[in-house]
Write a structure and sequence with these properties.
The chain is an all-alpha fold and about 475 residues long. About 65% of the residues lie in helices and about 0% in strands. The termini are far apart. The N terminus is likely disordered.
Length: about 475
């Protein structure tokens, strides 16, 4: 039954607007269409979706926050993961989540959100969930939480959002989420295989299943990834209620590695000299070993993402990208060892720099690796590439060419990151960093403490830390 409105019309009148076509114009349109020779595919998408712009943005902001928190969370575990493959893959995943956050942040700015409003967003329930997830007892539990609980829930939520939002008016969001899912698919597939490897290698499956169920219930208690799901009861007790989460400070390696931290000199660590110290062969091997040992750079930059969390999104993003680069450098070094005829695990792994940086305030740790380590590489890499080319050493020329490009980018980005991390002038920051690394190297026995010992120079730190 139609009901009158305030203006004498009916409710049906308000919701229905009848088209008024002119017969001759419609007939002419049909005639023109009949003469058009091309039969292109028909776009079957329809107008209409479940979300308003406001609701769409609310969900995207929550998605952004989950991605940002996962980037930070994985960074906090980079020191504590012993298994080489998992540490390396985690360095990759840190950037995948960072890039997902960047894409979502960009889409939110297109829906009338200012970047500073997006970056200032916090959610205490999500934070509590992330802290509980990070309280994993081992790397296997970490993968269960990050990937099999949160990661899989995110992927499912994104697919549902793609299906439910307007297929025409909101296509930028659909494209954004589909791009993110291209990283999620291999990431989740790898994680499932990695958890299976842990179980096959002796990790008990029952505690992993218990932890999975615990975190699944906790996620459900906060409305899931979208925040719109029916809320269940939170599990009790939570680990963080007994012991708040704190990131690790000690670099961990699995049993395949033979490690050292008392020196930065590979010959000293090996107690032998494979090649004459200044020979090309010695320099070549040192460079390749240094790249494999940039597993410690995964730890450094990943940790920085956690330590400066919420200070500046762009700095977090750049650190995440550098972490991914360092994971690639580690792979490059590992594969170059194989291509050079070595078993990578026969060559000892240097922990010197990571041991010093782990407990250090982030600004000083960042200054060491950026001002001393990466700048130090750039001082010598041009000559190394030229020599490799002259000797027809295509392996070294090839890998060092790409590494040089990366390191130049890192030095440039590092300058901006340091401005976020510290208010000190560059000279003061460099001096304090040298003092702290001198103290650390003395404590490790890498240098002897003398009564009148001076703070190490930049060049001495480059040599002793060996980056």
């Amino acid at each position: 039954m139609k009901t009158p409105d305030d203006h004498g019309g009916t409710a049906a009148d308000k919701s229905t607007i009848t088209a008024r076509s002119l017969a001759e114009q419609r007939a002419a349109a049909q005639a023109r269409r009949a003469q058009y020779p091309y039969r292109f595919p028909v776009d079957r998408r329809q107008l209409g979706g479940k979300f308003t712009v406001k609701e769409n943005s609310r969900r995207l902001l929550r998605f952004f926050y989950f991605e940002r928190r996962l980037m930070q969370a994985l960074g906090s575990w980079t020191l504590a993961i012993p298994e080489y493959e998992v540490k390396l893959e985690t360095g990759r995943h840190i950037f995948y989540h960072a890039d997902a956050a960047r894409l979502l942040r960009e889409r939110l700015t297109e829906q009338e959100f200012r970047p500073h409003v997006i970056d200032a967003f916090r959610d205490a329930e999500i934070d509590r969930f992330i802290d509980e997830m990070l309280s994993a007892e081992n790397s296997a539990e970490l993968l269960v939480g990050v990937h099999q609980v949160v990661g899989r829930a995110i992927a499912t939520t994104y697919r549902h959002h793609i299906d439910d939002t307007d297929q025409v008016t909101d296509v930028p969001t659909i494209r954004c989420l589909k791009r993110i899912l291209t990283d999620y698919e291999p990431m989740l597939e790898w994680a499932d295989a990695a958890v299976d490897a842990y179980i096959a290698g002796g990790v008990e499956e029952a505690p992993l299943a218990t932890w999975r169920w615990h975190l699944t219930r906790l996620l459900a208690s906060i409305g899931g990834i979208s925040g719109a799901d029916v809320r269940g009861e939170a599990p009790t007790p939570l680990r963080i209620d007994t012991k708040p989460y704190e990131r690790g400070t000690v670099p961990m390696r699995d049993v395949r590695f033979d490690t050292f931290k008392h020196t930065g000199d590979y010959d000293a660590a090996d107690n032998t000299q494979r090649f004459d110290k200044d020979s090309y062969e010695a320099i070549r091997l040192r460079f390749i070993r240094t790249q494999r040992d940039e597993v410690d750079a995964i730890e450094a930059f990943g940790t920085f993402v956690w330590d400066i969390r919420f200070k500046d999104f762009n700095a977090e993003y750049d650190l995440a990208r550098i972490t991914w680069d360092e994971a690639r450098h580690t792979e490059i070094g590992h594969r170059a060892m194989l291509a050079s005829g070595y078993d990578p695990y026969e060559l000892r792994n240097r922990l010197t720099s990571s041991t010093c940086r782990g407990p250090m305030e982030p600004a000083y740790a960042m200054a060491e690796i950026n001002l001393f380590g990466e700048v130090g590489v750039l001082k010598t890499i041009n000559d190394l590439i030229d020599t490799a080319e002259a000797r027809n050493d295509e392996l070294l020329r090839h890998i060092s060419d790409f590494i040089r490009a990366d390191e130049r980018t890192h030095v440039r980005k590092g300058t901006r990151i340091l401005e976020v991390m510290s208010n000190l002038e560059l000279k003061a920051l460099e001096l304090r960093t040298r003092e702290l690394f001198t103290e650390c190297l003395v404590s490790l026995g890498a240098i002897k403490k003398e009564i009148d010992m001076q703070t190490l120079t930049r060049e001495e730190i480059e040599h002793l830390v060996g980056e």
